[in-house]
Design a protein that fits this description.
Layout: E1 20-25, E2 36-43, E3 50-55, H1 63-80, E4 87-91, E5 102-103, E6 106-107, H2 126-134, H3 142-159, H4 165-177, E7 182-189, E8 195-199, H5 207-212, E9 217-221, H6 229-243, E10 254-262, H7 268-284
Parallel strand pairs: 3-4, 3-7, 7-10, 8-9
Antiparallel strand pairs: 1-2, 2-4, 5-6, 8-10
């Protein structure tokens, strides 16, 4: 499918008939190369609910990239029919740095070769950053607090000045996803059945996602360690609820890592099925109108 022309996104509250493609350059890497994160935005900017779906954070994991390619076709059709009701961000290849790391014919996309840093670890702690801004500003109004917290997170992220390409990638992805209601980070393993990682407090509200992708296992943890991308999006809400016990703070971001099977078994039919499953998840959460 050809990419649409680069266009500025519609203004907040103005629906888009198709996806807009946005390019976000990162700080130069050690060799001076500038990598670019590509985002496809569907729906109405600022609308609720908002979903962020990305693949290829470990750039050598391919099933999720293919699934999002086919999901984009489904979303293009939904947009043409006027069925999109929220805002959906699709990043089919979320890690442009890792996509350039070839050695002797093999793509090495799990860690940055310059630093050894894992592309799915070490994300900024939004609870710590936002809590400095939120002191004395939260109350018993849960909806108002969600808006205040998201604004504080955005303010804290805007104040950051990442200097390296890897930190710039982490910062950009979190800036795009921090205010989403739903975040799905698509991965794969070399040899594995489909499975899912999710925070214990978010279960069982996420069980439909496990069912849709036919997960053979669901791994639950309050904190898995290392601050991976999905937890960097969902854990701040639980942390802030502990930091401000007198305030009403709901778990406003449902985030999970979906492991879409074996990286050595990429299959077009399976990717299309997984795209359809992701589409149904978005329907169920109110981002897409179901047909009458």
């Amino acid at each position: 499918m050809p990419f649409p022309a680069d266009t500025p996104p519609p203004a907040a509250g103005e629906p888009s008939a198709a996806a807009t493609r946005q390019l976000y350059p990162l700080p130069p890497d050690a060799a001076g190369h500038v990598h670019t994160v590509t985002v496809f935005r569907y729906g109405t900017p600022g609308a609720r609910p908002k979903a962020h779906l990305q693949a290829g954070l470990h750039a050598d994991e391919f099933p999720g990239m293919l699934a999002l390619y086919f999901l984009r076709r489904l979303l293009d059709e939904a947009a043409a029919r006027g069925r999109l009701r929220g805002e959906i961000l699709i990043l089919p290849q979320a890690n442009p740095i890792g996509l350039t790391q070839w050695r002797q014919g093999f793509l090495l996309g799990r860690t940055e070769t310059a630093s050894g840093g894992n592309f799915n670890r070490g994300y900024p702690d939004l609870a710590a950053l936002a809590s400095r801004i939120l002191a004395g500003r939260l109350d018993g109004d849960a909806a108002a607090n969600v808006a205040r917290i998201r604004a504080a997170m955005a303010e804290a992220l805007a104040a950051m000045r990442p200097a390296t390409a890897l930190d710039g990638l982490r910062h950009r992805l979190l800036t795009l996803a921090h205010d989403a209601d739903l975040v799905l980070d698509l991965h794969a393993d070399n040899q594995a059945q489909r499975h899912m990682y999710v925070g214990t407090p978010l279960w069982p509200q996420m069980r439909d996602i496990a069912a849709e992708i036919d997960a053979r296992a669901v791994l639950l943890a309050d904190i898995s360690g290392g601050n991976p991308f999905d937890e960097a999006c969902s854990l701040p809400w639980q942390d802030l609820a502990r930091r401000f016990p007198d305030a009403a703070i709901p778990p406003a971001c449902a985030a999970a890592t979906l492991e879409l099977g074996s990286n050595d078994d990429v299959d077009l039919g399976m990717a299309q099925d997984q795209a359809a499953a992701l589409y149904r998840i978005l329907e169920r959460r109110g981002l897409i109108d179901r047909p009458d």
